[in-house]
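Archive entry. Fields below.
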Amino acid sequence: MELVKLTIDGKETEVEKGTTILQAAKTVGIDIPTLCFFELKDMHIENRPGSCRICVVEVQGRRNLAPACTTRADNGMVVKTHSIRVLNARRTVLELILSDHPAECLTCPKAGNCELQKLAEQLGVREIPYQGAQSTYRKDTSPAIIRNVDKCIMCRRCEMMCNDVQTVGALSAVNRGFMAVVAPAFEMNLEKSPCTYCGQCVSVCPTGALTEVDHSRNVINVLADPEKTVVIQTAPAVRAALGEEFGLEPGTLVTGKMVAALKRLGFDYVFDTDFAADLTIMEEGSELLDRLTRYLKGDKSVRLPILTSCCPGWVNFFEHQFPELRDIPSTAKSPQQMFGPVAKEYFAKKLGIDRKNMIVVSVMPCVAKKYECQREEFKMNGDPDVNYSITTRELAHLIKQSNIDFMALPDEEFDAPLGESTGASVIFGTTGGVIEAACRTAYEVYTGKKLDKVDFNQLRGFENIRHATIDFDGLPINIGIAHGLGNARKLLEDIKEGRNHFHAIEIMACPGGCIGGGGQPYHHGDSEILKKRAAALYREDANKPIRKSHENPFIIELYKEFLGKPLGEKSHQLLHTHYFDKSASVFIEE
Amino acid sequence: MAIIKLSETKLQELKEVCKSFNNDKGELINVLHKAQSIFGYLPAEVQEVIAKELNVSVAHVYGVVTFYSFFTMTPKGEHPISVCLGTACYVRGAEKVLEEFRRILKIQVGQTTPDGKFSLSCLRCVGACGLAPVVMVGEKVYGRVSPDGVKDIVAEYRN
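PREDICTED_STRUCTURE:
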């Protein structure tokens, strides 16, 4: 390792060769402001176009100012990060960016979380001396994501996420100069592009240019309707992140407070998507075992590996990009969409109410769930199984505007029966969790033996692509795990080429899994936050009295009373789905 | 965007072009150049084919096409008219010549007549300043063009 010595603001530091001035400055406690720069450490996610010029610094002997995010530290370098020349240039750059940015901060959905707003505050901008034309563009609303390009500052973070990390290829910078915008091909609406609604563009956008479609107002309206029984389900990853919106340390579990808040908001029943996750394991695990045993018996028609299907961004991805492989993923619906029909076809009947008078709302760490619940195949006679899906962020807004002092809330319990869950379902919210939950059940069902230890540590972690072999009492089961759609693509290409010998693969569209979902509180590039959220879910799992889905007493009862058996006729009808080929050109209208 | 049926032979030619560049995504700009010379312009369908052949997103191809002003998504006319607006032509009245083309053809610079016969563009110096003002129709050069002469040039190609 070669080291270089340099001086930053009079402080000497020694860093590895290749380190940027931005990183080197951090070693001596100097935080140079950035705007377009973005990274998620340890996840190979980085955006460094060097285009915004907010991070410029003065390097002795160099004629022009240097962007700290792309300039490498060198031996003997003398850097000034806050000289008068730097401060003036930085302010001018920001003022110029602001001169082409709508001053709508009061009503902007990104208010309070906007990095541009924060920078203007930090640099003490009090007026914008430049006046001229502002670039404008039409607003594009899709089922899950809104593009308000007027607020785009061309940092290219969304493009990096969409193309390099997710390999979706929905967005690109188009046109040039003042007319440049980030848009889908032929400037069509996002809905017509191969967008998966994973929402990773939303989660990295520094401004309000990309936001989720807000359904919180619809929720307020149904809560006020006395005719409706309003049921809410909360996804596992929400409880590990919601606290951040109220100033709590990342990784603080707020399950009890969240339930208490939802009851105070007026939901008639506060249920848990975790219950449906246990149900997913029953169906998906059975499907895995069914395919596996038939395969072992020599049935050549069986296709392996089986791929998980809980993640709607991932489902959209393979429908668009790998339609020829759409017979491999499990046909099990996602937990959100399993919960819907169980609530409306089972629980509503138990209550003696018509399904039209039951409204199912979900709180999700996800943006794609908004699209998923609108899919035609998840409706019965036009009535959606899940009516509205709101993000963790939208829930925080609902709580704040309802005058609930979140921190003062007591811990309360989910309602029975659809609020009971196991440790297995909690870890659905992080990469590796779904397959671990499936292994716990599949192992015991297949071998007929009890697991000594339910933790499968070899399936955990944050590596982009992981594999492990689990011993099913003499039968080695090869498991693959990928998080992030670009990593998923690699596994899928291996399958296509026949290079892949996995029995089962778990895929989650978002880096880190649902804890890093597009609907979570903004992490602003801090990957430690994601790790703490994941750790919180494993903690919740470890503390649960029951940690295997098939031991959930309410799941057992639901099968006995209503569903029959996993993969049975009723299950097939309510809990399984099919996939579509969406690869056809969407840009050219007939 | 309406579906424009691409001719099979031209489509095959395009695929051959991609192949000659080893379907390398780094050769996108070169492929686009050749594609524009095959089709005269770069309609959405052509961009989709190129994206597929080079294994890049259509959004990316479109991004490159819209970045470089040389690339166009508007079909050129059967007889592309270019009026030189270089310094020599300009001082000898090229502006008025261009104005006359716009009036007669009822199109703006960068547009094509509805019948697909003519398209109008302007360029900077064709290296024939001695003939200023200069107009090109396809490969043919017209020198010392006056606004009055414009209608005769157009008439030459009308049938």
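CURATOR_NOTE: Residues 8-67 of chain B form one domain.
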